[in-house]
Amino acid sequence: MTETAVRRIRVVIAKPGLDGHDRGAKVIARALRDAGMEVIYTGLRQSPEQIVAAAAQEDADVIGLSILSGAHLAICRRVVELLHERGMESVRVFVGGIIPQQDIPELQQLGVAAVFLPGASTQDVVRTIEEGQAALA
Amino acid sequence: MRKVRERQESVPRPAGRESPFTTISGRPVEPVYRPSDTAGLDYARDLGDPGQYPFTRGIHETMYRGRLWTMRQFAGYGSAAQTNARFKYLLEHGGGGLSVAFDLPTLMGRDPDHPLSLGEVGKCGVAVSSLKDMETLFDGIPLDRVTTSMTINSPAAMLLAFYILVGEREGVGPEALAGTLQADILKEFIAQKEYIYPPRPSMRLVVDMIRFCTERMPRWNTISISGYHIREAGATAAQELAFTLRDGIEYVQWCVDAGMDVDSFAPRLSFFFNSHSDFFEEIAKFRAARRIWARTMRERFGAKNPRSWMLRFHTQTAGVSLTAQQPYNNVVRTALQALAGVLGGTQSLHTNSLDEALALPTEEAVTIALRTQQIIAHESGVANAADPLGGSWLVEKLTNDLEGEAFEYFRKIDAMGGMVSAVERGFPQREIQESAFRFQQAVERKDKVIVGVNEYAMEEKPHSILYIDETVAGEQVAQVQALRASRDPGRSVRALEDLKSAARGKDNLMPPILEAARAYATVGEMCDALREVFGEYQEQPIF
Fold this sequence. Notes:
Largest sheet of chain A: 5 strands, parallel
CATH architecture of chain A: 3-Layer(aba) Sandwich
Number of strands of chain B: 10
Distance between the termini of chain A: 14 Å
Largest interface: A-B, 40 and 45 residues
CATH class of chain A: Alpha Beta
CATH architecture of the domain at 67-444 in chain B: Alpha-Beta Barrel
Structural class of chain A: alpha/beta
Order of helices and strands of chain A: EHEHEHEHEH
Helix content of chain A: 40-55%
Oligomer: heterodimer
Strand order of the largest sheet of chain B: 1-10-9-8-7
Shape of chain A: globular
């Protein structure tokens, strides 16, 4: 078995659109950092363009979108579009927040890798990201 | 008299539950409370009867025997027409007053066709882009007979202007309008994050509104100094209490520094608290709030009018405590939290709906929420006597402890130069984040049980919700564009220029905002005019 350098998983946690509820995003960001990942938190009121640019600049493996405002379909669609435009299809998109069950199939079809609903634990998120990265390797 | 031997912790107890016995804020709770826990409590000095300084037991002598709290349900979604219908439904079914929830573009001072409004229009509340929407929103609602609370902060002055102008059209002058404007910008920097401009120009806007309303709108509560959002962001009960009241102190200080007499405006300040899950901690918190404010207004600010000493507050049950899993459990949570608000002596109350963690409330869900208040009011008997838990050793001890912790925070924040300085340093924000993280860890360790989530979970069928699609956005954008094309272009352009000039100077911003509103300038345009002058605030993202 060849030795590979240990590379931390790089995650951009973003608050897209106008929603300012950042409690969950910050708790997740901290939990991911405590789990050994490299976490970049974009702060509030980011456009899809700004988020994808941050992911490109930070060489992110994962983008985690926190959306409680109901704008998830429009925003995820745009983020995934931009990732494709920039040849960044390998960046996985996760979304967490207030997402109606009925929208989850459409999000998955759009290319969102995982959806986290209220009640998800930080460990659920850590595990999902780690398993996803291992599968890609 | 027989002396009761007080049990020592070292005496072996029967095997019991393992969980730490703490409130949801992490405060340790003793197994039992006794008179010794409140030794030194002086009835006249520390409690008073309801309606007597320091108002610990309530601000009115008769409390709910004189008048029940106002059942004021927060409502708003989609278009102004849809929300107008929901308002009428609530009033018809026993609601005592209106409370408006605006959508994110409105809250953030953006028009529906701004790029950042993508996917947001009408989703979290009603879309109001101009005076035209406000006219539709209150169509058929008599503003001289209905009181309205508006949850709006950065663009509060604009929405106040719209409300005044709708009143004018109905023949109701500003002096007859009764209601509340949230307008509490400090808690935006601390918790809700719906800020636009930096702290100092934002405070200037608040002082301008308070001054304008003091002169022209004697029945209007100029501000709703809020702890609700601070608590939802993760604060403990003590932090919610301390930061809210210290925000209040900051507003009073700024108004006094601007030359206003404290007794001229203090009676119309109001407050807004969360009612969270730990029953006794919340009741104690409300009582402590009244006592702290009374003492502060009299001793720190030298207010002489007793109405300046009285803390009047609205309460909302804790949205953050409600679960997406097994939504009907939320009816029970909300009922307990509402009961705590009533036992704490609130002046008005919003009860959350069972689908709070899923979407905006359906009509069925909001009806149950309203009925919850009506059952408490008319069937439980708790409204028959004021402050029924007064004298409980546990409740009085908690009230004392919370007051002490609040004053500790006041000292810290005073030492930093006040709340604006503390906010600029990130102090309250970091305190809240720490509490939020600790709580999540407690839940994941199962030190805090959440029924249906980390215990007693089960397979569930999907729950039907109020689903808002993009139709409203399409209509709203079309309407705003039609408005811009049809209004008097010269008048709105001039009004926006005048607003910018006033912002660069020291004049009160309400008159130019009123003129711009009359000219059908949009919320986005008015807020952009101020963005040009004040700049936009960027938070330092820390986690």
